[in-house]
Amino acid sequence: MRLQALLTGIALLVAAPTVSTAPAQAAADGCAPGVRSDFNGDGRSDAVVGDPSATVAGHAEAGRIVVLYGDADGRVGEGARDVLWQGEAGVAGVAEPGDRFGSALAVADLDCDDDTDVVVGVPGEDLGVVDAGQVQVLWGGAAGLAIGEGSTQYTQASFGQVAAAGDQFGFAVDAVEDVGQGGTPDPDAYALAIGVPGAVVSGHDDAGAIAVRAAYDGGTESFWITADTPGIGGVAEAGDRFGAAVSCTYLAGSGETIDCAVGVPGEDVGTRKDAGDVILVRDIYYADELVGTSLGQNAPGVPGVAEAGDRYGRSLDTVRVGGTSRIAVGVPGEDVGKDKNAGMVQLFSSDTHVVHAGVGLTQDTAGVADSAQPGDTFGDEVAWIAPGLADTKTRLAVGAPGENTSAGTDAGLVQVFPMGGLASDVVWTQGSPGVPGAAHAGDRFGDSLGMVAGATERVLLVGVPDDTAVAGGMVDVIPFGGGAPRAWVPGGAIPVAGASRFGATIGTVSGGTE
Question: Among 2, 120, 203, 351, which is least packed by CB within 10 angstroms?
Fold first, then answer.
């Protein structure tokens, strides 16, 4: 269902790497504070997990999502469960082969009614042409997600575009609630960003685009942004896949504009194929004033050098805590020394309107656990963990699903790094004490990551959709601040017969301050 891309309550903050001359303004109003991952408004913490490869009503890879509601014990997602797909409950459409409903998930209370809503990417949806893609917003309510109110659908036509085969509209999604009203909270204020990495631009296949819908002051505006859009500063090229990842928020100190960090992992840098890039697109409310800035490895002040196959921008996540904004860029194809595809994460931070490039974090960074090895793909997934409850540190979880451990090739691991003390990282595998399951070759532990900051519990969710011992996949649940790890496994308490890759996507809801 929802959340991979965005969390409610976490204001993802990214500023441009130049000083802005815009005057400081009042902070944006937000939806009423409360439990940030609460689909039915009962004050308990819910979660959502995607299985986009699942067979539904005999249709292979139609896809579905599993909603895990909280209950009186205070733990995230340990109450009633529900399974949703296209055509079930209030979800529009019909399950069809290859739709891949749930391939991307984002979460925000878009209508400020205290019930969390979910944005679902359906990049395989056919709209007269194959894999044109679609996005659905599933509305929260007292009866549960997508019950009592029909979903809202978006396609290329919603943005004045014509659907084309292979667009993959909805490959990535992100959402931000109640942005920049500067006065009375607007119950319909939000920004929705949709990655369309397969879009043809100026005749170039898979050049890519993002579609942005901004609602405020009783109206809406829609934008279709590509590398060729005036002000972005790039050039659309075949295979760039602009929009393969996207993360958006309003800029610190502004409260009236939205910025989006856009992953372009297929970007060629000179002759270096698929080196990748990240473009920070500022002020998306103003189509005639868009400004794009590269945060790539060849940008001024960014350590490292763009190399063929880096796939810089394959994953993205951002967080704002206490006036400081952070962005993590996954670079799973980065070679570390002679270790090919060992992987890296490039860190940025901002406390005003200036983005500062931080360390290029690898498993060979001084003091951190483990070491870089060929094929680790460290940085294939990244997820910020904002402080909450008794925990005062901002942390970053990094997935390395290609990590070889004593259990075998591609067993996978996850490292969690506290900011301000990277050498105090903690390594998690399925062989760690108390973690359910057992590590095996090919498990690819950490293939997806999520974080839910609930009312009484904060948990890191680690997807293991290819677990070799659990048919159909699983999600390991690792609490912060006490409590034993547990697992969500299809079957039994989770009534999902025929799961395919349960845990391939995870809804993330965190608690960064706005």
Answer: 203
Contact 509, 451 (CB under 8 A): yes
CA atoms of 361 and 176, how far apart (whole Å): 28
Q: CA–CA separation, 98 vs 247, rounded Å? A: 26
Question: Which of left, alpha, beta for 434 (phi over 0: left; psi -120 to 50: alpha)?
Answer: left
Q: How many CB atoms lie within 10 A of CB 303?
A: 12
Output the CA–CA distances (angstroms, integers) from residue 106 to 214, 370, 377, 381, 514, in the order listed: 16, 32, 24, 15, 18
CA distance 138 to 317: 22
The string over 157-185, giving b where at least 16 C-beta atoms fall within 10 Å of a residue's C-beta and e elsewhere, is ebbebebbebbbbbbbbbbbbbbbbeeee
Nearest to 76 by CA among 294, 389, 492: 389
β-bridge partners, 198: none
Q: Please state, in angstroms and rounded to a whole number, the distance separating the CA atoms of residues 281 and 7.
A: 20
The residues, ordered by sequence, that sit 6+ positions from 21 with a Cβ below 8 Å of its Cβ are none
- Reported as a single tens digit per residue, the pLDDT across 314-353 is 999 988 787 788 899 999 999 999 999 999 999 998 877 7
Partnered with residue 192 across adjacent β-strands are 175, 213
- Phi and psi for 384 in degrees, rounded to 5? -75, 145
The tens digit of pLDDT for each residue in 249-295 reads 765 444 456 778 999 999 999 999 999 999 988 877 666 678 899 99
